[in-house]
C-alpha cells in the first residue's frame, strides 16, 4: 500500500515537473504569439499592462464563479439532497455581490482612466506632423520644418499578383517612411482628403481616425530607434489593404540631418523643375518616365493596359479625354474629378512627371495621338 502510494506520488511529481517545464517554455512562446504586444512607448506598455490587469481579473472572476457553480451542482445534486432548501433572499449576500463587483470595476477604471487622460493629452509637442490620408496613400507634412511628402506602397505589383515571392514586409513597405526623432513628443494632426481612413501603429499604441473635414489629434514619444510598421485600419475602398504606415525613428541628431537633407532635396527639386520646363522634351525621353509614373500611380485603378475596370474606373484606351484636346486632358489630371477617386495630381507629381504620364497615355493602349506634352505646358496650366 505505502509502496504503491510512493510510486504514484513520484510519478505524479514527475508529471507535474514536466508539465511545469513545458508550460514555462510554452508561456514564453504563447506570450509572443497571443499576447497584446508591448510596443516601444510608455503609453503602449501601460496599455499592455491594463490588458493584463483586466485579463487577470476576468480569469479570477471566471474561476470563482464557475467553481461555485460546479461545486453547487455537484454537492447539491438530487441524489444527495432530495429535499431542497426553501430560503429566499439574503440581504448580506446581496450586499456582498454588489460591493465586490463595484470595487473590482472601480479598481480597473482608475488606472484605465489615468492612461486615457494621458493618451488624450496632446499639449506641448516638440514636433507636429499633419497626416493627410487619401485613397490609398499617406501624406506627411512637418508643420514646423515646412516639408512634406507622400508615402506610397512600394511592394512590387508582381508580388501582389503572386508572380514573384512575397517577402517578410509584404504590403507593409513604403517608398518614403515617416521619420521622427527619439525622445521627443510628436503630435499628429490627422485628416483625410476623401473618405475615412485610420492611422495605426501598434508599437506606439496610436490609432486615430482620419476624417475629411475634421482634424483629430494623437501623439507619441518613442525611445527606441527603429522601423515600425502599421496599416490603415478603416475600410476605405478597393486598396484599403495597400496603404501601409511605416515610421522610421532616428536618434535626435540623425533626425536633424535628415530634415536638413529634405530641405536641400526640396530646393534641388525646385531648381530641377525650372530646368525641366525651360527646354523641349522628346517623345523618347518622356515615354519611359510616363510609363513608370503610370504603373506606380495610375495602374491600380485604370489597370496597366489602360482598359479600366467597368463603370467605376474608365478605360483610358480610346477615352475621349485622352484622345481629345491636350488642355482638357492636362486639366483632368492636374485637378482630378471632385468626389470621385480620380484625385488631383497637381500637388503630388512634378510638371515633368505629369507631362510624361499624359504623353504616355496619349500614345499607349492603342491611343495614337502623336502628342508630346511639355513640362512647360503643365506648369502653365497649374
Ligand atoms: Cu485607408
What features would you describe in this structure?
The protein is of the alpha+beta class and 382 residues long. It folds into four domains: 29 residues; 85 residues, Helix Hairpins (Orthogonal Bundle), CATH 1.10.287.90; 143 residues, Sandwich (Immunoglobulin-like); 103 residues, Orthogonal Bundle (Cytochrome Bc1 Complex, Chain D, domain 2). Helices cover 47% and strands 15% of the residues. It has ten helices and ten strands. A five-stranded mixed sheet has the order 3-2-1-5-8. The protein has a five-stranded mixed sheet with strand order 4-10-9-6-7. Helix 6 packs across helix 9. It is elongated. The mean pLDDT is 90. The structure holds copper (II) ion. Copper (II) ion binds next to loops.
Main pleated sheet: 5 strands, mixed
Rg (C-alpha, Å): 31 Å
Distance between the termini: 98 Å
User: How many beta-strand segments?
Assistant: 10
Q: What is the CATH architecture assignment of the largest domain? A: Sandwich
Q: Structural class, judged by helices and strands?
A: alpha+beta
- The CATH H-level superfamily of the largest domain is Cupredoxins -  blue copper proteins
Work out the strand percent. Answer: 15-25%
Q: Strand order across the biggest sheet?
A: 3-2-1-5-8
Work out the helicity level.
Answer: 40-55%
Bound molecules: copper (II) ion
Reading the helices and strands in chain order gives: HHHEEEHEEEEEEEHHHHHH
**In one word, what is the shape?**
elongated
Average pLDDT figure: 90
Discrete helix count: 10
CATH topology of the largest domain: Immunoglobulin-like
Domains, number? 4
